[in-house]
Design goal:
The chain is an alpha/beta fold. It has a domain at about 5-160 and about 195-220 and about 265-275: Rossmann fold (3-Layer(aba) Sandwich). Helices cover about 40% and strands about 15% of the residues.
């Protein structure tokens, strides 16, 4: 049974808000760490916060998730997603506080073609600076807890969306609304992943914390689809009749190189009874609030 208090970094962010709400539904005291008290650009504040608030566990959901921004400034990505996670992990480990680090599918190269999802034990090979910076965070946290028996969780997930907006569904709707009525919306069809609703992920994370003493787990929605599939479900739910055409990822120029296969094997968590619902079911719940 999970007891508190549990500190959440990035508590005003997409996943952070969902985590705080999930803890509240379970009656677990939550401590919210956000800027200016906790800032990825001043990570040395972590030790002071740990000593001040004495959490039992810290969930590190704060991150620089601008994948293209990370590609344009890899050094800043390393500091925010790598070094800052290491500072927090070191502070928590010294104080005997548990840490759950939220990471990404982009620690994997995304080029496998056998139709299987990446397992927790598969070799990592980040295809871009965002994935590389998150992997550094994983490695530094693992090193900080090397002498501890448990107390560190690494959760990899993919394609997050959910309140408060400014996510893939709301960006697709905005893009559709900017186009003339007779011009089709073009969306990449050869990137495959599992769109993951943040309230569902938060629920699964808190479940795992109550069932395990640490480990690496993959958590993502219960099925897969392409970016085009995801966008089409959004358009059909909110802008029915808007025409769409699939394009190749090679036709959509961006600073970053996202992995074409973003699928995670979540069977380790499922074996413990922790599963996320299919992404279409979760999206249907979310869309009325953004249409």
């Amino acid at each position: 049974m999970l007891s508190g208090p549990v500190a959440v970094t990035g508590a005003r962010g997409r996943l952070g808000q969902a985590l705080v709400a999930e803890l509240a539904t379970r009656g677990v005291p939550a401590i919210t760490w956000s800027r200016p008290d906790y800032d990825l650009d001043t990570p040395d504040a972590a030790a002071t916060l740990v000593a001040r608030d004495r959490p039992t566990i810290v969930i590190h959901s704060a991150a620089w998730t601008d994948v293209d921004g990370c590609a344009r400034d890899p050094d800043l990505a390393h500091r925010r997603n790598g070094a800052a996670a290491g500072e927090l992990a070191a502070a928590c480990a010294r104080a005997g506080v548990g840490l759950l680090l939220v990471s990404t599918n982009e620690v994997f190269d995304g080029v496998r073609s056998d139709g299987a999802g990446y397992r927790e034990t598969d070799p990592t090979a980040p295809p871009n600076p965002y994935g590389a910076s998150k992997l550094v965070g994983e490695q530094l946290a693992t090193a900080a807890y090397a002498a501890a028996s448990g107390g560190l969780w690494i959760i990899r997930t993919a394609w997050l969306y959910g309140p408060p907006g400014n996510d893939f569904p709301t960006k697709i709707l905005a893009a559709a609304d900017r186009l003339p009525a007779d011009e089709p919306l073009k969306v990449v069809a050869d990137e495959i992943g599992s769109p993951t609703y943040t309230p569902d992920l938060a629920h699964a994370i808190i479940e795992l914390l109550g069932l395990t003493s640490g480990g690496v787990f993959h958590l993502a929605a219960g099925d897969t689809g392409s970016r085009f599939d995801f966008a089409r479900a959004v358009i059909e739910g909110c802008r029915h009749g808007r025409s769409m055409v699939p394009i190749s990822r090679n036709d959509f120029v961006r600073a970053s190189n996202p992995p074409p296969w973003a699928v995670l094997d979540c069977s380790a968590a499922a074996a413990l009874g922790v599963r996320l619902r299919p992404w279409r079911d979760a999206l249907a719940e979310y869309l009325p609030g953004v249409c």
